[in-house]
Amino acid sequence: MSITNFLTFYNLLGVKVWPLTIAELNALIKSVIEEGHKSIISNHNIHSLYLFHHDPKMREFYGSSHYIHIDGMPIILFGRILGLPVTRSQRVTYADWIWPLIEEAAKNDWRIFYLGSKPGVANRGADILRFKFPELNIATMHGYYDASPDSEENLAVLKKIKEYKPHILMVGMGMPRQEHWILDNLDKLEANIILPSGACIDYVAGAVPTPPRFLGKLGLEWLYRLASEPARLWKRYLIEPWFVLFLFIKDFLMKISTFMNSEYQN
Q1: Could you tell me which of 26, 107, 12, 99 has the C-alpha nearest to residue 62?
Q2: What's the rounded Cα separation, in Å, for the pair 161 and 185?
Q3: Measuring CA to CA, how many Å separate 202 from each of 117, 125, 189, 257?
């Protein structure tokens, strides 16, 4: 029976999340590809939670997603405080996932199309991946073009993707541009798996410094990224988390209220 029949989601901070490990995500992808389905597998972190509650198009995108994994240790922490059975291993970020995912793709002969990053960066990242996994089938296209749905450049990109027939389409244009692009072009995208994947290839290519992995386990990657790119990321890491904290307090108070009501009735 398909793994998709056994996956459970939770409502947390106003959104749905599926607590999946790297191994479970890879198994999910394999199941979707073997069954010939088409699925968006997106993710939530503090930044996406802020955007979800402020951008109607992001809410529409997540409504179109089939599975949403957790990419943020604060979400794991909030979930545990609220009594959900989530663990550190169910926090999956592309800095950790990209290598096991590519290994699985090479082993199963899955074709990957990566769209995004600056010109030359995706190609450099793909070369590094091919060097480590010679059997890998991967094509790339940078994300610096007119991505409006009906532009000649965008139509050419869609044609290129269609001709390559990828099993996995990775879109690394940054949030929320990548999610908007997927939503705008969803009906024309021919791939089994669609992954909004942020700076994943930038990490591989060395264009963006990868935070030390021990910081990820401690939930402190944000501090490294803020120090690396303060002008671009200060709002994301110093302002937006306060809104997410408000969402957590709202969920926490609701949980206490539910508990008190049940105790009173008993």
Answers
A1: 12
A2: 12
A3: 7, 7, 23, 45
Is residue 163 within 8 A of residue 170, CB to CB? The reply is no
Measured distance CA(123)–CA(142) in Å, rounded: 8
216's tokens: 């990820």
The residue behind tokens 């930044």 is 47
Rounded to whole angstroms, the Cα distance separating 105 from 109 reads 6
Residue 233 CB-density burial (10 A; 0-12 exposed, 13-18 middle, 19+ buried): middle
* Token representation of residue 22: 């790297």
Residues in contact with 5: Cβ distance below 8 Å, sequence separation at least 6, in sequence order: none
pTM of the model: 0.93
Output the six-digit token pair for 131. Answer: 């060097």
Give how many domains the chain has, as a whole number: 1
Signed CA dihedral, 243, 248, 253, 254: sign only: positive
Q: What are phi and psi of 224, to 5 degrees?
A: -65, -45
Cβ atoms 18, 41 nearer than 8 A: no
Give the tens place of pLDDT for each residue, 58-77. Answer: 999 999 999 999 999 999 99
**Span 126-140, average pLDDT:** 97
Residue 166 domain boundaries: 3-265
Q: Residue 256: what residue type?
A: I
Give the neighbor-by-neighbor strand order of the sheet with 137-141: 67-70, 39-44, 193-196, 168-172, 111-116, 137-141
CB atoms within 10 A of CB 132: 12
